Amino acid sequence: MRRDGNRLTQTLKAPLAFTAAAVAGDGPSPSQINGNGLQHLQEFEAELETAEPDLARIDDADLQALFRRESLADELEPVFTTTFDRRTVPLEMADTAVELALDQGYIRGADDQEQICEAELELKAGRPSRLYELALMLARDVGFRLEGRSKAARGYQLYAAEPPKPYKAAKPLLEPGQTVAEAFTRQARSCVDQVRANEAAVLDGRDPEGVHQMRVGLRRLRALVTVYKSVFAAEPYSYLRTELRWLQQQLGPAREWDVFRAETLVPLRNRLPSEDSLELLETEAHGLQREGYEQARTAVTDPRTAELLLRLELWLAEGGWRASSVPGQDDQGDQPVEPFARATLAKRAKKVTKLGQRHDTLSEGELHRLRIQCKKLRYASEFFAGLFPKKATKRYLKGQEAIQDRLGAVNDAATGQRLLDDLDRRLSNKRAPEAGGSGEALAANATGIVLGWQAALMDRELAAFHATWDDFAAQKPFWKKG
Asked: Which residues fall in a coiled-coil region (predicted)?
């Protein structure tokens, strides 16, 4: 219910993809609501005399079916209020008309409130991609971050008094007959959705899954760009490689300390509850974890991140990432994706096999290389899974996951040893000369316990890895014909 002066308006917004299936209980995904990064919504508006909602004024059969099923007319009640001043500025950019709305005010729930200070670009006529171009121009002079949640979504979050929920993206399956460029665009859209949908959870910081899922989205996108390198123009490829790596690195410390505390310190303290030295280590690890989260929040709000996301959205909307967008350059973008997929998978599998067949003699550094090569093959397999027989693909992916689990546990243990060095430096800086050797002895004792735990973990996982590799190597690649 909106009041603007003496005018009272009832407005309902729903996704363009809202259908009878949605009425049956299957909600839309972020990509359905925010297709191509824009909010694509249908609006139902009616002027009313009183502040009581009148659902009969909403002319849509699917929505009316939802209202009847849920008996909404009798159940609605106000749960939050937004109060803000809006200034609108009409803009023209080449062939496109845009309205810039500047909003300042508050969203208020029963027990909490959130400040509104935002600019909204609304397309009035012309090309949607101009919105990204205009936003990139503004970003040169005004620091901002992109907000994926509407005022209403933030109001309902205040009402629920719950932290933002992490978002785990469904991996979009490709379909036979798609081109290489169509395949990249569909999958990149899913990755961008995953990154943007987890920003709020990262900023909130209460659920470690938010950082994890945002990093997963970034890793998938980095892998995707590498897989489709031959189709990319040089400038977008170089830019994305640099900027995606930077952002993933900024989230790294938060995730590493999450894993170290949850998978090493917590089980160790449960096993040795009377060991005081572990409590000392846990306290310092928690401090470093908080610093990692502060670094992650700073990165998410950095204008550099906003520019990265805007460029991604623009390139996906206009196809500017492709080599064919550069005069005089051709690419494979218009070719069928199936031959491209087979060649890519065969190339990556060859690298894995060459290194993996020596799995029982590999050094720690070589095992790390094998883990990276297996991860690249796994991402490519997931990207192209929909093009091949489901049963064979699923079996092959399961074998890859088993290898990743084994080598991932070894890598986590190796990372834990590096984090122990960080903890030792932090404790050394805190030790006062007059404190004697007790604090130093406690720290040394805790470090020894953790190193022993991690060494045993690495030995166990490496011993099991060899059988896991043999099982995987015996499988036939799912992309081979015949």
From this structure: none
